[in-house]
Structure formats: structure tokens, C-alpha cells
Amino acid sequence: MAGNTFGRLLRLTTFGESHGAGIGGVLDGCPAGLPLSEALIQAELDRRKPGSGPAGTTRRESDTVHLLSGVFEGVTTGTSIGFFIANENQRSRDYGPIARAFRPGHADFGYQCKFGIRDYRGGGRSSGRETAARVAGGAIARALLARHGIGIHAATVELGGIPAPDIQMEGARSRAFFAACDSVIPAWEERVRAVRGAGDTLGGIVRIEAHGLPAGLGEPVFDKLDAALAGALMSVGAVKGVEIGEGFAAARLTGSQNNDPMTPGGMASNHAGGIVGGISNGQPIVARCAVKPIPSIALEQHTVDVDNQPVTIRIGGRHDICAIPRIVPVLEAMTALVLADALLLQRRMEARP
Amino acid sequence: MAGNTFGRLLRLTTFGESHGAGIGGVLDGCPAGLPLSEALIQAELDRRKPGSGPAGTTRRESDTVHLLSGVFEGVTTGTSIGFFIANENQRSRDYGPIARAFRPGHADFGYQCKFGIRDYRGGGRSSGRETAARVAGGAIARALLARHGIGIHAATVELGGIPAPDIQMEGARSRAFFAACDSVIPAWEERVRAVRGAGDTLGGIVRIEAHGLPAGLGEPVFDKLDAALAGALMSVGAVKGVEIGEGFAAARLTGSQNNDPMTPGGMASNHAGGIVGGISNGQPIVARCAVKPIPSIALEQHTVDVDNQPVTIRIGGRHDICAIPRIVPVLEAMTALVLADALLLQRRMEARP
Amino acid sequence: MAGNTFGRLLRLTTFGESHGAGIGGVLDGCPAGLPLSEALIQAELDRRKPGSGPAGTTRRESDTVHLLSGVFEGVTTGTSIGFFIANENQRSRDYGPIARAFRPGHADFGYQCKFGIRDYRGGGRSSGRETAARVAGGAIARALLARHGIGIHAATVELGGIPAPDIQMEGARSRAFFAACDSVIPAWEERVRAVRGAGDTLGGIVRIEAHGLPAGLGEPVFDKLDAALAGALMSVGAVKGVEIGEGFAAARLTGSQNNDPMTPGGMASNHAGGIVGGISNGQPIVARCAVKPIPSIALEQHTVDVDNQPVTIRIGGRHDICAIPRIVPVLEAMTALVLADALLLQRRMEARP
Amino acid sequence: MAGNTFGRLLRLTTFGESHGAGIGGVLDGCPAGLPLSEALIQAELDRRKPGSGPAGTTRRESDTVHLLSGVFEGVTTGTSIGFFIANENQRSRDYGPIARAFRPGHADFGYQCKFGIRDYRGGGRSSGRETAARVAGGAIARALLARHGIGIHAATVELGGIPAPDIQMEGARSRAFFAACDSVIPAWEERVRAVRGAGDTLGGIVRIEAHGLPAGLGEPVFDKLDAALAGALMSVGAVKGVEIGEGFAAARLTGSQNNDPMTPGGMASNHAGGIVGGISNGQPIVARCAVKPIPSIALEQHTVDVDNQPVTIRIGGRHDICAIPRIVPVLEAMTALVLADALLLQRRMEARP
Asked: Do C220 and A144 touch (CB under 8 A)?
């Protein structure tokens, strides 16, 4: 109830702070008999690791995951799966200056108002570091989905205002920035370099697709599949907008343009992004997320301190220039958690004998 | 768990179909002592009523709400509040032709795949008629928020691709289309008339603001206030995109542009839309929703029937040309339910004596 | 969250007071395709009806249930099932004297402390009348279980301190007091008559059995099947104790006496009451509930009024002399809701393809 | 949803097996500002430690708890509190023989039926070892309650069929067996010695009291305080019965005997055990639990193996002779979790300004 649990039948509960002992979680509700190893989870965590690529920080973390329970002889037992990733490289001294001042664009002020206390070391629980636990849990959800022929792929389709001219989802996993195409990468590298030089940061847009989903997933009314997805994706710190299918563009189409005609072989188009009336229709799920620029900038900013006195702040430390590409596997993980949960919920009892 | 309950401490559970006995719900968790009457709820329902304005249907429903429990001597007792709105005007014969064919853009196909059965009369449970119960429940949440000085206002900021040139939230309640300004109304009326003449339908964009919210609402990590809002708004059938604050525009700003500087008197700007790190910061909450065009069009469409045979369909019956303006009070209701729930959750125990 | 919803996948939400418009509920999560009619629910409600038998009140209610949603062409659609039972016969004048005084043994004082307000007419929400909604919801759960060959039977095994000498569950449904055997009935009738004459009331013990349940239901650790059952049965107002299998007698056995030996044909005994380690083992589920005497007695009692002044009270009105037999179908309903929910939860995804 | 999470606002999620890496958990929803240290939790864990007293096993575990998150500068931050207790002393070879045979009275068979797989090393997740995480979480709940003047005390009131002649709750914490009085201890020691010599095991009865609770806690209808308590206590593996107040004895009283008269200074008696209509009434909460004998006995037992072939089994290893006294702090912990959760839920918003 305090925000650290996600899901209904497949539930991920997480804990940990940026500069505490580490980050961990418990995945409950995973069916028994799924092959699971630390290596499988580690592979996803490695994709989120800091310090890779031109937009990255210089902070180095091995982010090594340890499975603590729920696996016996290489397969899941159906009981809760505990895991832990120790923090290794917390230079707390970097964060000294911000112990008293609230960083603009960060959760500092809200946490202080909410809890009357906050762990100011790297943002504590509000740090993006918590997403490591999402990726670990999502890796298990992903393995579950893969058993059912469902795959999830995300790609960066826009960075710093420069859209990718082409959308090729399949190769994104191995491209710099997890870019949607090769040709845009030099322009993005150039943009990142310029903005970094100016002490500033960037945002972008990520597209997520899920293939192989059967029709019929999602629940009516409040727990529509797109509602669950929107909530899950928006729960990732940097995300400020979510679209399904045509999204905001749908607001400018007419019904005859936006409706997807049905044929005996499936929908003739996919304006809906695979979800109609909140229920999957068998087409690929398509979502897009707006990622805001990282709020930790090297430029001087106006803010207030804990006594509400005006101060200026300049944020040191080792920070990413953009949440992309590291946010991409996080968005994939949240999508995997939503879809695996929906799949488990749909395995309902048939009333007819 | 099957999608018909919304909220955590303040929980709305709804039921009812387009052509059944009626629509109803139970609101649980409302604090005791809140003045509540049928008239208070009716006032909100009247704003959602069909048949008003140029984009409306000719279907007439009085949508009269009956309070069934939870109120004693004019105030809430803290127990569950049941309410019911009888259906009055179901011309089931209009829906005969669609008993076998799946309407493009509707939930028909998904429901059939999910449940193996569907109530084809007006879409059954997937009909927009279910939103009457959201508005009724939201009216109570709204009254609760008002006691704490929190107000919610929504306005249409774009219709059929024509944006309102000016955003004046305060007068929207009494304007046609709940428009964000007066000057755009003639253009929207013209657009609606043209599209209706062509047998087609329209979408648009709605902006929602909440004022008076204290800083500190929302829960960390998965239950961020913006995540809850995004899920709630996306659960309304016609919504295909949700933005908070700058939303997708934030993806094109730099950190120095997007961060809101803090001053002793509050934030100097509100790019964040009142929520940072998932926690309210005391600024107005600002969200925008993309509303897709109504899928029920009078034009001939290609689809399949329950035997997966290709057929064409032309949808008769009395339908709105646009979910706007009727969706506007629904989006306000969902926002009210989210914020009232967040407010109740924040009233936590103080550990310090 | 405020106590009016029960269950996880199969969820019953109820509302209504003793002297308001009526009692109702919403059952969500019932699978599609289950034949359901008002008659099926009415049959269970009729078993709970007041005024039947020597321990009954003279209050007469037809308790006619109306199905409001979720059923189409005689079967469930998988959407939420709303139902309502109008109150008919509320003689509010009977309750005038207790508007100011707290009735000993009743929830009056607790509700006043909790909510700062209470509906004193017949106890409002705390009245046993709310159990009508449990029976209605339970009737649907029962129909679901019957499809899977699972039956639930309860019987009174002790009344007013007089135990039934023999336990014959099968015929209980048609016996007075839903007694566990015929021979004890005259003694119970005699006891009831004497206590009623003295202006006092009685309690007793009810035994519940469920047959046909597969092994493997229930969840580990906190959601054990016996934990769910104990919580469900204890939530019925008059219940003050719950035992599974040997219950308190098990505390006096040794391990060699209490363990149930296993044979290729099943357990050789059933001391465990069908649940070991919180998981069903394929033997019949056996539970027992202690039912306290009805607190509304005609004798003078010492109490305080809303100003904490000492007063005496003598409770008029039409009251049962014992919660038995009317509580018996309520306990069956709660058992049905628990078991149907557990059955739905067990229909999980198989990870192995 | 898979059984490893307990609570609503204060939620404990646990993981871990008898012979895996260890036992751990996450407590979410604890208010900020509560002083918390490993020492505070360790003190409760030490009370549950194996190997102390005549009824104990020879297995030695230091059961050292590590706090992993949620605490900053010695107080809770309001975020999720992770903790871990490493397993130290798993002699897996002891459990070899039971890899194929189902132990009578254990969860082995149910887990195999439920999951199609089981961790047979010491029972895996079904081992009583999971209760260490309950005690750790409960220690935090207890600290929270102590801030509000609420204390919880449990004592053994019967062992092996021998009741304690006197109930003195206050000194139980320091007595052998956590006994309710000193005088019964020699008889219990004698009984334990005899039964251990015979290769058999014992059960008993534990009484739990909570003092200082305000009136008004608990939720109406399904989430009554006694229902929550009964579910929580019954979720502890060895518990087979739960009573509140008079419990089963209430079934033999008349209303005039069982009702607690109210006076300006409080209730004149406490037959109700502090809960009426599911809501606390300001009197001490009183509950009793029936604890079954430990199923692991050294005597030969009849059972079947995984191929459903009859075999005999004799359980070696180092086992307790009775779940008492180690279960006593576990029952206290569950009570603390229930009451702290109820207290947080009651801190509701006042609708009246």
C-alpha cells in the first residue's frame, strides 16, 4: 500500500536506496517449473548498467544479482523469489552539498513534505537506482512470457528532439542508444556531446512493442490492459507521457481513419496498438513513452533549502546525460510485468465442465 | 480482481450494462461525516447526460441516481455507499444486426475472445454507459476533496484537430463542449456538423487541472501519483494517451528548460505538472488526455462475424459524434477518485508521538 | 479497504443497512458461462429467512433478490454481478430508545468510537441483516463449486450447551435448526422455549464440511486455506471461535495420534480437517464455529448513553433467540466464497509449455 | 497474491526456505520517523531461536538479522524496509530419505499437488523457519504500537494436555515455555521428557493479550478485527484453532451471561475479548490458539512415496518436541502486525474540516 509492490497475481515488491546496502526485491506468484538462473537475470541487468555509451555516467557498478529463494534444482518452485543486488560504489561525499538544498526536478522536496525526513544520499529511495530491481523482476516475467511465445522489444525513436527516420525494432537491442535505426546514431551522439558540454541534459521518446500476445488479455472497466500499461510505464521516474497505438495522433483522426478493419486473417491495420476496449486483440501491443531530461544538471539553478531560504545549486557527482538508453530495459521490464500478470489472470476457471 | 474495482482506501466497485437493468456501484472507504445527497451526485451526472449539445446522441436518459446505503441523516456513516441508476431507454432492436458481427474499434472481439460469450446489446459492459457509475462515485470523491480546498476542472483544448487558441479553465464548465475558450466554439460546431454529415466521428484532447493539493501526496516507486493518474485516465474507454505537465514536449526540452526552479514562494514554473518523482509538489496538477474518435460510424466498414467470415457493417442507432464533451466529467471523476484516495493514504500515522 | 469487500479473484462487495433501502452487493470475478438465475440465489436466501422455526423472530421479510447485471441469456458474462434485496418491514419505532444508549454486546459503542456517528436504526450496517448479501454472493460461489463436484454442508452440532449425540451431515439441510441429527431436536426446542421465556438468548456450535475439493488449494505462508477460512468464518458477527479438524482437541494429542497416515487410497484418518500446511490434501474440509448468544435480550442490562451516563436498557423489538439456525447458510456461504476463490487462484499458468 | 504478503497499509512480504540462502522480507508502509535498529529486531528473533529449553531442537542458528534499507540515521524513512537472515546450519543430508516419501502431517503432499514440484530439503518454504521473517517484521510493528502505548503479551496456558492453574501474563516472557505461571513448569518438563523419550511430540494452547488499544479499531463486515486476527493466527503453521474472548465457551453461555455490561469507566467484564461487532471496544484483546503437536516424530509412520507406493518413514534430524515455546513470539508478531495495520487504517481523514 506504500507503493513498493506492483502487480496482482505476479507481484514484485522492491526495496533499497541509492547509497544503502543495496537494491532488492521479492517476486511472488511466479508459476512453478520455470527454469531460472542468476545468469538469466544478470543478462537483463547488464543492459541497464551505468557507464555504457556516450550518454552514460562514470559511476561503475557491477550490479551482480543474487537469487535468495524460490528456485530449486534450477527451476522455480512457485514460492516467493527473493533477490539482492549489493551497492558497491557509493561516493557519499558527492552528495554532501545537497543535504540541505532541494534539487529542482527531483523528488527531494516531495519526499520531505511527505515523510518529514529524507535520505538525501543520491536521492535515497527516489533514485533511479531502484529500477535495477524492476529489471531483475522483469527478467523473470520475460522468461515466463517467452515460454508462451510472447516477446517484448523497445527502441529509442527520438532523442533530444531528433526523431529516428526509420523504425526497425528488431535490431535495437544491439544498437547504441537502443536506437530504432542505425542512421540516426551519429546525430544523436553529436547532440549528446554538445549538451554535455553545456552542462545540460536531454530527453527522448521510447517505443515499446509486444508480439505474440493472444487476444483476450486485460480486464474490463478499471483494469484495462492499456490502463495497466500506462500506470506501469508512468511509474518509471523520468516518464511524463504514455501513448497506446496512435495515441495523441488519434485525437486528430476521424473514426473511419482510426478504426482497424477486421479480416479473417486479423486486423488490416493497428491504429489501436493492439488494445481495444482495454482488451488485447491479437495485434502487436504498441506503446510510446515520453522521457524527460535528467534533472541533475551541472548548470547553476535557483532553489530553496530546508529552511525555505533561496540558494543556488550546481549538481556535481557522476550523472547520466539522458535516461536513455538505460531506461529502455526498465520500460521493457515494466511491460513484461504487466503482460505476464495479465496472462496469469486470464488463466481463469472455465465454468463449463 | 476482475477489473470492476478502483482505488485503495477509497474504492469504487461498479456494475451494469448498456441494456440491462441499470448501472450502479459501491463506494467504500468514504470517511464518516461528509454531507451527501442524491442531488449532489445528480448534478455531476447531469453534466454527463446524453443528448446535450451538437456532438450528442438523440438517446435520452434521465440518469436518475438512487442512494441505497451509507448515508444517515444527511451525512455519510463511514460504511459502504451503494447507488443505482436505472436504464430507461434501451431500444434493443437497434443492436440486432451486430449480434453476429464484430464492430471495428469496439471491444466486441476482445470480449468474445476473453469470455467466450458477450452481451452484444449496445456493447454490454464495454459500453461507455458504465462511466455513469464513475461520475457518481467521483462526485462523492469531489465533495470530499472540496472539504480540503481541492478543486478539479477539465476543459476541451482540441477537437477534430482544431486546438483552442486560449486556455481559460475557469469558465469551461458552462461552455459548449466544455471548451477551454469561447472563440473556438464556432469552428468546432462547424467541424462537428461536417463530420456528422459524412457519417463519420471525431476525437480531441482534454486538459485536467487540480488546484489546492498539498505537497506530499502520492507513493514512491510503483504507486506514484502520476502513475495512478495515468492508469485512471487511460481506463476510460476512449483515451489513448496521457501526459503530465509538459508530457511529450518534455522529451524535446533540456534539463535546464524543463526543471522548475524553486523559490521561497513555490515553484517558479510548472513544467512538471505538479508532480515530481511521483509526489505532488504543491503546484497545480496538470494532465492531458488524447480522446480517440467514437468507433461507431455510419459509414460501411469491413469486419468479420462470429464465424470469422468477412462481412460489411454500417452502425445505426443513436450515437454521439464525439466522446467530447460527455467524457469531460468522466475524466474529472477519475481524477477526483485518484486524488481523494491519495489524500486518505497520506493521512498516515505519525510515528513520533 | 474499508471492510466491505471479500476475496481475491472472486470478490464480493456488499452494502446496505438494517433499516435503509435494502441490502445489496457486487460479485466480481465470476467466470463466464455459469448458468445463473434469481431463483438459484433465492433458494439460498430462503434458508436464511427470518421467522422460521422456534428460535426465530416474528419479523417477516420476503428477502426477494433482484439480479441487476452480469447475466445474459441465463448465463454469467464474466462481468460484475450486481444484486439487490429491498428492505420491506422496518419498524423504526422499535429502535427509538436505543438511539442514545449503547446496547451491551453490540457494535454500537465501537461504531460510535470509530466513525463518530452511527446509524442506530437496528444497528445500521452492523446488523446481522448484512449477511443476506453474503448468502446471495455465496449462492453463486456455490454454483461454481458444484460444477467442479464440490459440495458444502453445515449442521448445528450443539445448541445452548446441548451437543448433538450423532453427526449426520447429509440430512441437516431439511432438519429443524439444521440439526446434525434428529434425536436432539426436542431437547433443543425445550431449551429454546425455556430461555425465551426467561427473556434470554442462546449460542451454539456449527460444523461445516466441504467435499470433493482437490488437493493443492490454498496458498503458502499467509494465505493458507485454513487462514482464509478462519478469517472468513470469524467475520460473521456472532462467531467467536473457529477450529479446523481436531482444532483445540489437537492441542491435547501427541504427534503420533494427530498425524494422518497416508495410504495409496488417501489419508487413513482426517484429524487435519483436510488442510495440512495450509494446503488442501484431498480429504473433506472440516471446520467448527462457536456462535455466541444473541446480545439483544429482553432482560434489563446496565450500560451507558452517548454522554457516558449510566442507564439501564431493556431491548424490545423482534429478535431471534439464537443466531442458529439462520447463521448456518451464512457460514456455508462464506465457506463457498473462500473455496471458489482458492479454486480460481489455483487455475494458474503452467510455466512448462 | 501467492500468499507471501500480509497486511493492507502495513505489509510484510517474505521469502526464503529452510535450506536455501536464508530467510528475508520487506516491510512496506511503516511510517517515517520510527527509531529502528538491527538490535531491536534481533531481540525478538532471539526469543524464537531454536535450541533453548527442554522442548527444543539441537539445531543451532544465530539468526542474525541484517537491515538492508528503509532506515536512515537510525529512524525509518517511510520507504520499504528490507531485511535478511542468512541460513547457517543446514545439514541437508538429514533430509535425504524424505526426498521421495511424503511426511504425514506435513505440507509435502499438498505442495507436490499444488506446484508439481517441491523443495524437500527441510520442507523448503513450508518449513517453520519462515516464521523468523514474521518475527522480524512483527518486531517493527511492535515498536510502532509501543509508541502508541499498546503492548502485546503471549503465554502458554496449556501443554500436552496439562493446563496452567493460574494465568499471569506479565512474567511469561522470562519463564520457561513462556508459561502462564511458575507452578506448572515442572509438570510440563516432565511431560516433555516422557514424550521425547517415546519418540513422540506435543501440542498446547497459547493465550495472547493486547493492552492499550483504543476503541474503534477494525473494519466492519469482512475485515473485522477478530476476523483479521483469526486469519493471521491461523496462518501460523501449527495453529488449528483460534478463539476470541470466551471463544467456544461463549456457545454455552446465555446472552445475559455473555454480554459485557458497560459502565462510565468501561466494560464491567471482558467476555468479548475486547472486540464487539468486529471493532475494538477499549478492553484488552484476548485470543487463544490451539497448537497441534509437531508432525515430525521419531516413530515409524505409514505413508506413500511420490509414486503413490506405500512406505514407512521414521523422521530423523533435529526437531523440536513441541512448537511451544518457539511459536509464542511468532503469535505475538502476527498480532502486532494485525493491530499496527488496524491502527494505521483508522488514521482516516476527517471529512469535517
From this structure: no
Q: What are phi and psi of B5, to 5 degrees?
A: -125, 140
Considering only alpha carbons, which residue of chain C is nearest residue B344?
Answer: C1
Torsion angle, CA of B265/B266/B269/B271, rounded to 10 degrees? 180
Q: Which of D65, D82, B221 is nearest to A16 (CA)?
A: D82
Q: Of the given ranges (B79-93, B264-278, D257-271), which has the lowest mean pLDDT? A: B79-93
Q: Which A residues, 130 through 189, put their C-beta within 8 Å of a C-beta on chain C?
A: 144, 147-148
Assembly ipTM: 0.95
Secondary structure (DSSP) of D9-69? SSEEEEEE-TTSSEEEEEEE-PPTT-B--HHHHHHHHHHH-TT-STT--S------EEE-S
* Cα A154 to Cα A158: distance, rounded to the nearest angstrom: 12
pLDDT-above-90 percentage for chain B: 85
Counting one residue from chain B and one from chain C, the pairs whose CB atoms sit within 8 A come to: 176
Residues 6+ apart with CB under 8 A from C287: C207, C208, C209, C229, C230, C233, C242, C243, C244, C273, C335
Asked whether residue B54 carries a pLDDT value surpassing 80, the answer given is no
In DSSP terms, D209 is beta-bridged to: D153, D286
% of chain C at pLDDT higher than 90? 85
Query: How would you write A257-283 as a 3-class SS string?
Result: HHCCCEECCEECCCCCCCEECCEECCC
| Grid coordinates of B70 | 451509507
Report pLDDT for C352: 38
% of chain D beyond a pLDDT of 90: 85
| String of DSSP letters for C254-306 | -HHHHS--EETTEES--TTTTEETTEE-SSPEEEEEEEPPPS--SS-EEEEBT
Do A38 and A67 contact (CB within 8 A), yes or no?
Answer: yes
Q: For position C311, what pLDDT does the model report?
A: 95
Helix and strand numbers, DSSP H then E, in chain A: 7, 18
Contact across the interface for C84 and B80, Cβ inside 8 Å: no
Which phi-psi region, left, alpha or beta, contains residue C282 (left: φ > 0; alpha: ψ -120 to 50)?
Answer: left
Confidence band of B96 (pLDDT split at 50, 70, 90): low
Using the Cβ of D74 and the Cβ atoms of chain A, whether some distance falls under 8 Å is answered with no
Which among B13, B14, B117 has the least Cβ separation from residue C32? B117
B24 touches chain C (CB under 8 A): yes
Q: Is D74 on the interface with B (CB under 8 A)?
A: no
| CB contact at 8 A, B346 and B10 | no
User: In this complex, do A31 and C343 lie within 8 Å of one another by their Cβ atoms?
Assistant: no
Mean local confidence (pLDDT), A269-294? 98
**Strands in D51-150 per DSSP E:** 65-67, 71-72, 75-76, 81-86
Q: Nearest-CA neighbor of D120 among B224, A47, A73, B232?
A: A73
How sure is the predictor about C62, in pLDDT bands with cuts at 50, 70 and 90? Answer: confident
- Assigned C-alpha cell, C27: 460479485
C-alpha cell at A164: 529516428
Mutate which of C11, C111, C235 to test chain D, going by most D C-beta atoms within 10 A? C235
Q: Report how far apart, in Å, the C-alpha atoms of C149 and of each of A259, B329, C77, C130, C136 are.
A: 45, 47, 22, 29, 20
Q: Which residue of A has its CA nearest to D72?
A: A119
Question: Average pLDDT, stretch A133-140?
Answer: 98
**Secondary-structure percent of chain B, ordered helix, strand, coil, rounded to 5:** 35, 25, 45
Q: Given phi > 0 = left and psi -120 to 50 = alpha, else beta, which region is A22?
A: left
Which residue in D332, D352, D23, D277 sits closest to D150, CA to CA?
A: D332
Q: In sequence order, which residues have a C-beta less than 8 Å from that of residue C88 and are 6 or more positions away? A: C60, C61, C62
Q: Which residues of A touch C350 (CB under 8 A)?
A: 31, 33
